[in-house]
Write a sequence for this structure.
């Protein structure tokens, strides 16, 4: 029972992260008909931007509170990552830790949001309606911006710890539950609710729902849908960036291959959930997250192939995805 | 009479294919004009060209003397062209209310007045106001599609084959509604259903193979069986 | 898409003009004499160009002729490289080379078949690209974990230190001819395939899949054939590549090598087949060039990431030159012809 609870919680946490990636991907695909092969890179940039802001801001704060703290640094690329070692007995107050964490997350999200705007304005909007060109161009962006990360922060893995106030583990009904996992589930659920409300209650939501069916008919109602495309693409990017920022502390390090790995997870979710189906990607994310942890514990031998196996099985028996697809591309 | 919508030798293309090869149409203020022609003659493409959904290659395309060619679709609509697309074009995932609200330029008192008028015109929509439009019948969707642009103060209403796929009883109701609508608005109707075309249109144009080939007063066409047989296959 | 020029029509129906024939002959003779004047490093580069040209062509069969974007193509190429190294490590001779070819053939046919079964279910280009990307990455990560066969991240070197294949050749020059002959043979074979009735159907699928289906063609069957033929050619190229590179690692299985194929076809022009030869020359040369520059400026971090430049070139190509060099050439030719007729 205890193990089961531990598994479910960490599975849901994984699912929440995958969802942050997949939801943006799914809406962009469904409404704009654009498949974004650079989504994993946006995720990655979220992670690196978070890592860099977190270390930089934290070093400043610590040095201002404890001038005698020990300063370390790694230099793998163009930008130096500053680390600061607290001496025993020194602890930053909770409010400051919270401030550092929240600001770093916001910076990461903002950076990726701006990248999203640039991607859409410079590249994506040249290839609307041309699926092969979209694949090629976003794939190119993926390659370039992944290598750019390596140039800026170096190709090596950088350790990344969780903020102290989220680092604990509690016992619950015999299971051990990491606080960070609970935090991820709360963030995932909150984001899901917000997206749901935006889609069902606001004008931009009406445009999204209508655009899923026919962007052309939306435009014929006097709505400049291209303007919405930019915002939606950038928001999807920001979600991926948020996912990246939250992912790195979970796994404890930042590494440039994480982008592609997580992008593939998101793709699998989008395929099994049904292309462009928001609900499908929500349920698909939870499913994949839970399955990932369970397989890793009980069938570690197939853990690498499990996701793709599920995708293959779904495609062979239900090619439109488990929950039906919104678009046919 | 100064014309409202005017095209002269309009040529438009999709990719490498030229679809319209010279369409001359003039619609005056307050008129109700019908465009007839066989399947694939270019009628729908003509409306889509006016809306900027198909690109104009050459010729004149003007609304109230203003050139429309090259303008984006949303801007054309904002000039006051209401468009009822082929196959309804209503949004399944939106309720009737949302479909109407999405179409509104602004949500002021005047617009709400027009919405109430439209709902009186199509009582079905009032009943289904909060329902998702995917739950509507084909006839109700067509009504919603016609109702949608009417919430704005349009100069002209373009309607693409409202009779398509509807039962005769429903077509009759659509015809009644269109006769009511044309009292207030200029109407340009594309139609295959000859009865509906006769019920609404005052003048007609016939498009054949991407060109306007005939035009005149509706009564003349009704009498001219040869013309009907030649271009409409009636 | 439909304003694409039907290149294979030009390739097929147009009889070779004497001038073209002569220049082709001169080019071939030149290629056979060339090794006399090349240094070792240049020989390696030329051999690579020849082999990657075949890899590019094998990709073009799929991407250019059916419009299908396979992001897992490197699976077959990489498997070929691994097979080559593994079998030639048993014994570095022609027999084991042929065994490697046979092994990778079986693998490509089976793998290609399974891939098409999974991918063609959903129909669209987008879903296919997403799924093949996932398949490719999975194969790569399996290979990375399967250490005792693949050597994991360290890679798998070939034991014999010299470039040789007993009894065919034992020098770099021999390897050059080996690769050149492979290129010539494969060009003829793939050309034949493209011009065959099957190739014609593939082209018609690219132009308008629905129409081909209405005409009664089982389009999925033809796409499966294209996937398998392309997988076979890529796999074989991989084995040849192993002989030259004498090393296998998971990079050859990764998206990076699929991108290489994409780039090669894109530079040369998709759907032109021969474009891949130009593309391969360009891509290999630029890689070499960047490597040389990076070696002479060890301080410049940015130069250590060739994909940064290659990826940028690639993006610019997609935007500004979507038909590639051969595509531009055929378009110019078509325009000139049109001019003459007028």
């Amino acid at each position: 029972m205890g193990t089961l609870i531990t598994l479910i919680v960490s599975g849901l946490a994984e699912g929440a992260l995958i969802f942050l990636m997949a939801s943006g991907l799914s809406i962009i695909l469904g409404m704009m008909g654009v498949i974004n092969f650079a989504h994993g890179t946006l995720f990655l940039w979220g992670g690196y931007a978070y890592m860099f802001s977190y270390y930089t801001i934290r070093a400043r704060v610590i040095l201002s509170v404890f001038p005698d703290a020990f300063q370390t640094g790694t230099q793998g690329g163009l930008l130096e990552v500053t680390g600061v070692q607290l001496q025993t007995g020194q602890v930053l107050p909770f409010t400051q830790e919270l401030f550092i964490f929240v600001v770093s997350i916001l910076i990461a999200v903002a950076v990726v949001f701006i990248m999203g705007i640039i991607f859409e304005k410079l590249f994506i909007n040249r290839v609307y309606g041309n699926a092969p060109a979209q694949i090629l161009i976003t794939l190119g962006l993926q390659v370039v911006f992944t290598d750019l990360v390596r140039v800026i922060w170096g190709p090596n893995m950088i350790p990344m710890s969780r903020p102290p106030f989220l680092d604990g583990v509690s016992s619950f009904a015999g299971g051990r539950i990491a606080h960070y996992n609970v935090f991820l589930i709360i963030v995932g659920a909150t984001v899901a609710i917000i997206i749901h409300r935006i889609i069902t209650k606001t004008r931009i939501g009406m445009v999204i729902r209508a655009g899923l069916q026919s962007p052309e008919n939306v435009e014929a109602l006097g709505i400049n849908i291209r303007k919405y495309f930019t915002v939606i693409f950038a928001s999807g990017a920001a979600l991926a960036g948020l996912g990246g920022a939250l992912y790195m502390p979970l796994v404890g390090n930042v590494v440039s291959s994480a982008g592609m790995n997580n992008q593939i997870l998101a793709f699998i979710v989008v395929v099994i959930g049904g292309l462009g189906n928001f609900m499908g990607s929500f349920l698909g994310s939870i499913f994949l997250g839970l399955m990932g942890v369970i397989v890793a514990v009980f069938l570690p031998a197939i853990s690498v192939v499990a996701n793709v196996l599920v995708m293959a099985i779904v495609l062979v028996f239900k090619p439109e995805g488990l929950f039906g697809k919104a678009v046919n591309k | 009479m100064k014309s409202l919508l005017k095209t002269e030798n309009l040529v438009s293309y999709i990719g490498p294919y030229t679809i319209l090869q010279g369409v001359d149409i003039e619609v005056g203020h307050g008129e109700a004009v019908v465009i007839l022609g066989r399947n694939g003659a270019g009628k729908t493409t003509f409306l889509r060209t006016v809306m900027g959904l198909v690109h104009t290659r050459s010729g004149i395309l003007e609304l109230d003397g203003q050139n429309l060619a090259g303008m984006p679709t949303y801007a054309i609509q904002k000039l006051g062209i209401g468009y009822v697309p082929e196959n309804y074009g209503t949004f399944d995932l939106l309720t009737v209310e949302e479909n109407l609200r999405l179409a509104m330029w602004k949500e002021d008192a005047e617009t709400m007045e027009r919405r109430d008028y439209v709902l009186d015109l199509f009582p079905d929509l009032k009943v289904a106001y909060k329902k998702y439009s995917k739950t509507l019948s084909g006839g109700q969707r067509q009504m919603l599609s016609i109702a949608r642009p009417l919430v704005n103060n349009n100069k002209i209403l373009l309607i693409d084959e409202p009779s398509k796929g509807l039962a005769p009883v429903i077509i009759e109701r659509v015809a009644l509604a269109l006769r009511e609508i044309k009292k207030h608005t200029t109407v340009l109707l594309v139609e295959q259903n000859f009865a509906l075309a006769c019920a609404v249109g005052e003048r007609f144009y016939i498009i054949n193979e991407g060109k306007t080939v005939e035009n005149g007063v509706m009564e003349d066409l009704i009498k001219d069986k040869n013309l009907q047989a030649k271009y409409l296959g009636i | 898409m439909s304003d694409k020029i039907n290149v294979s029509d030009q390739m097929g129906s147009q009889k070779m003009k004497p001038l073209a024939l002569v220049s082709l002959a001169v080019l071939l003779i030149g290629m056979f004499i060339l090794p006399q004047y090349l240094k070792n490093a240049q020989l390696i580069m030329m051999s690579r160009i020849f082999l990657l040209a075949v890899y590019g062509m094998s990709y073009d069969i799929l991407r250019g002729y059916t419009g299908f974007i396979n992001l897992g193509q490197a699976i077959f190429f990489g498997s070929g490289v691994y097979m080559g190294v593994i079998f030639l490590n048993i014994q570095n001779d022609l027999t084991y080379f042929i065994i490697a070819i046979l092994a990778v053939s079986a693998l490509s046919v089976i793998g290609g078949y399974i891939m098409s079964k999974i991918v063609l279910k959903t129909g669209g280009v987008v879903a296919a690209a997403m799924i093949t990307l996932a398949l490719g990455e999975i194969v790569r990560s399996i290979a990375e974990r399967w250490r005792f066969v693949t050597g994991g991240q360290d890679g798998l070197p070939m034991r014999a230190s010299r470039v040789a294949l007993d009894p065919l050749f034992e020098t770099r020059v021999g390897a050059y001819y080996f690769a050149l002959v492979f290129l010539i043979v494969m060009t003829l074979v793939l050309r034949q395939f493209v011009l065959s009735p099957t190739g014609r159907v593939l082209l018609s699928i690219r132009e308008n899949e629905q129409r081909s289906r209405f005409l009664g063609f089982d389009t999925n069957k033809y796409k499966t054939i294209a996937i398998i033929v392309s997988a076979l050619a890529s796999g074989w190229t991989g084995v040849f590549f192993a002989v030259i590179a004498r090393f296998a690692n998971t990079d050859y299985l990764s998206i990076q090598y699929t991108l290489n194929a994409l780039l090669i076809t894109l530079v040369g022009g998709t759907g032109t087949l021969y474009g891949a030869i130009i593309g391969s020359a360009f891509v290999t040369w630029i890689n070499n060039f960047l490597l040389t520059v990076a070696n002479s400026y060890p301080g410049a971090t940015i130069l250590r990431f060739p994909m940064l430049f290659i990826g940028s070139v690639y993006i610019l190509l997609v935007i500004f030159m979507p038909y590639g060099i051969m595509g531009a050439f055929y378009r110019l030719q078509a325009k000139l012809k049109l001019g003459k007729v007028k």
Observations:
- The interface with chain C takes residues 15-17 of chain B (CB under 8 Å).
- The longest strand of chain B covers residues 3-14.
